[in-house]
Write a structure and sequence with these properties.
The protein is α/β, with parallel strands linked by helices and 238 residues long. It has helices spanning 20-34, 41-58, 64-79, 85-92, 104-112, 125-135, 145-148, 156-168, 182-192, 227-237, and strands at residues 8-11, 116-121, 141-144, 175-179, 196-199, 222-224. The chain folds into two domains: 3-19 and 100-237, Rossmann fold, CATH 3.40.50; 21-97, DNA polymerase, domain 1. Helix 9 (182-192) links the parallel strand 4 and strand 5. The chain is globular, with a radius of gyration of 17 Å. The mean pLDDT is 96.
């Protein structure tokens, strides 16, 4: 792939730029210990994974903090332990505290010198604003679930993306989508006919973690283990 032919990059944020698994586990793990559950962070994330996706699909109008809280409650029910309102609210409010991957801010700064950067995220505006205090990203546009009233892999983000590209004067053929989640991003990217880069943050881990297994056909054009690797490839290409 000729990385110099693109004018814009659209990014998933959580899982790609922000370490959402560490952020979620930072709440689920102490709850599990308090409940006397001997589960690893990975086991908790796997238990949690289907519930977030289900809540997003069932109630796409919910703001992300409410999605997190309800998914946590359902996870507790699955594990046979009730999640109190205080614990549910704690996860719901935790998004701004989720850590950025160490390479994200520096990689974004390098990429911003080459492309227009667009966020395509399954969170709410305030949550992303908190995360961007860590990322310090120079984004030409930010599209959240709150803006489009739905959660990826639904098409709403991508319809909004089409409008944004027209506003930025970027042809669709000059856009490259960059994401970690095959379920949330690479399945719809294939559906939408968008070239994509897989940032495989779980390259050294088995299974799917907090992300559901892909539910449809997916493809990607390039794979990197980190944003830093991707930015290095872009610098080399230019």
């Amino acid at each position: 792939m000729d990385l110099t032919k693109f004018q814009a990059l659209s990014f998933d944020c959580y899982g790609t730029l922000i370490d959402w698994e560490s952020g979620i586990a930072a709440v689920l793990a102490p709850w599990a210990r308090a409940e006397g559950l001997s589960l690893t962070d990975e086991e908790l994330l796997v238990a949690y994974s289907p519930h977030e996706a289900a809540v997003e699909a069932e109630t796409p109008f919910r703001l992300y903090p409410d999605v997190l809280a309800e998914a946590f409650r359902r996870t507790g029910a699955t594990l046979g332990h009730e999640v109190s309102p205080e614990w549910a609210a704690r996860l719901g409010a935790s998004v701004p505290d989720w850590p950025a991957f160490p390479d994200s801010a520096e990689a974004l700064a390098r990429l911003a010198s080459r492309y227009k950067l667009i966020i395509l995220s399954n969170v709410h505006r305030a949550g992303f604003a908190g995360s961007n205090e860590q990322l310090r990203g120079d984004f030409a546009a930010i599209i959240t679930a709150e803006d489009v009233g739905a959660y990826k892999p639904a098409e709403n983000h991508f319809r909004a993306l089409d409008v944004t590209l027209a506003e930025l004067g970027v042809e669709r053929s000059r856009l490259l989508h960059v994401a970690q989640s095959l379920f949330h991003d690479h399945v719809p990217a294939k559906r939408e006919g968008l070239p994509s880069v897989w940032i495989n943050r779980r390259r050294d881990k088995p299974g799917w973690g907090a992300t559901p297994q892909p539910s449809g056909e997916f493809s990607y054009d390039l794979e990197f283990g980190s944003m830093g690797e991707f930015a290095d490839a872009v610098d080399q290409a230019f």
